[in-house]
Amino acid sequence: MFSVGDYVVYGNNGVCKVTDIGPIDCPGVSRDRLYYTMTPCYIRDSSVSTPVDNTKVVLRKIMTKEEAEDLINRMDEIDEFKVREEKKREYEYKSTILSGDPEEIVGLIKAIYDRIKRRTDSGKKVTSTDSKYFHIAEDSLYGELAISLGMDKESIKEYIRSKVKTVFSGEQERD
Known about the structure:
- Strand 3 and strand 4 (about 50) form a beta hairpin.
- The chain has 5 helices and 5 strands.
- Helix 2 (about 90-100) packs parallel to helix 4 and helix 3 packs across helix 4 (about 130-150).
- Helices cover about 40% and strands about 15% of the residues.
């Protein structure tokens, strides 16, 4: 169970701060059930609630500073995400982001970056799906890393570039 003040990743809301734990005052909702009330860190004037015993949406504690540094140090070795079924590309992108797994999200960012680069190098346009999920994945990953490392979200991208040699530095390596 989380505590008030904990930072968590909650579904597609990204990093949230737990602000209350208890029943919620909402018509039709049992007063016997406990809920986390959370404030998303990067969505202004917003709050979300979810049952403490929620199992449908990913709800996990954010990475520690050490885990965040370790992830950044391993980014070059993390394999690119592989689309198993081209017709389900968007579904697979979305599922990966909703998994909340930072390592899988790194792989997704690398894969989409590579796909965007190949398309633009061959004179093709970037698809709206690739563009959309690239930005969602970056926001998700960078938001969590920023909180874990005690940095602001705008600085985290440059911090990663200073430590990583592949896609995150803009120097995609080719096999």
